[in-house]
């Protein structure tokens, strides 16, 4: 029995965004219904190397009353990821690297070892797409992006799969990054550079920066803008001003992670933002326990939120497992990747 090794190019090729979005939606559904097991993300801090390791295991089962044997599935895996800020300058390595082990839940056999960095970008974009589908105005046609790093590309790729995006405004202090982003998408969208306020007055805004001092205030967004706050992934990170958050409808992916290391972690720790200021978790909206944006599919007439909405996304291990399943099955069907006898069972 063979384990499939999938590098970054293999993951990119086989992570079909429409399927990853569906899988991440299924992960949120399973989690909300209690059909997922996801221990808290654990950290190993390494101050001597100005870095840390993070482990993210999960199991999810989407074989529910809404599925049958042909469409239901379960999956398990773990992502081992780091953040070493000195890597680019000192070692010519990326700051963040990840490895995903995708396993058969029944036997625990390691079906695949995947590049977790590309997988993370894909599932992060997919999570923003699910939130956008539930919380953005139905006729959203413009997308603003603050931060033109690697995560920005999958934000556009994924959100354009759930809304008919025509105009894109990208804002970043690094002009080269902005130019590269525009070059990548100018054949498909009306894409241009702009200020944070210009990006924020689009129908949808995704913020993908690592800042600790907020850079987006209440005057920087439109009256009905949906904001995907994707950048905060550690305590102290904070992209959106407190008064913006307090005036918005806040939807989170997981209470423990968001209050510890998500967009709301700083005002929550200070007591300026409480549980009463959180509308709910994205899974509640996906399964219909809370209404999403008024007028979106699945929201009854006369129901739904309005105004500015914020999705606080920390990234969940169930998303990685769901996305890994898509990549593995697609690669296995297409004979992609490198199969090898990891456990020595074929000898």
UniProtKB/TrEMBL annotation:
Record's keyword terms, sorted: NAD, Nucleotide-binding, Oxidoreductase
Catalytic function, reaction form: L-alanine + NAD(+) + H2O = pyruvate + NH4(+) + NADH + H(+)
Recorded GO MF terms: alanine dehydrogenase activity; NAD binding
GO cellular component: cytoplasm
EC annotation from Swiss-Prot or TrEMBL: 1.4.1.1
SUPFAM superfamilies per UniProt: NAD(P)-binding Rossmann-fold domains
Family: Belongs to the ornithine cyclodeaminase/mu-crystallin family. Archaeal alanine dehydrogenase subfamily.
Xref: Gene3D superfamilies: NAD(P)-binding Rossmann-like Domain, ornithine cyclodeaminase, domain 1
Binding site residues for NAD(+): 123, 150-151, 231-233, 237, 313
Chain's role: Catalyzes the NAD(+)-dependent oxidative deamination of L-alanine to pyruvate, and the reverse reaction, the reductive amination of pyruvate.
Top enzyme category: oxidoreductase
GO process annotations (BP): alanine metabolic process
Pfam families per the UniProt record, alphabetical: OCD_Mu_crystall (PF02423)
Domain of life: Archaea
InterPro entries found in the cross-reference section: AlaDH_arch-typ (IPR028609), NAD(P)-bd_dom_sf (IPR036291), ODC_Mu_crystall (IPR003462), ODC_N (IPR023401)
HAMAP family: AlaDH_arch
Protein name stated in the entry: Alanine dehydrogenase
Residue numbers annotated as active site: 79
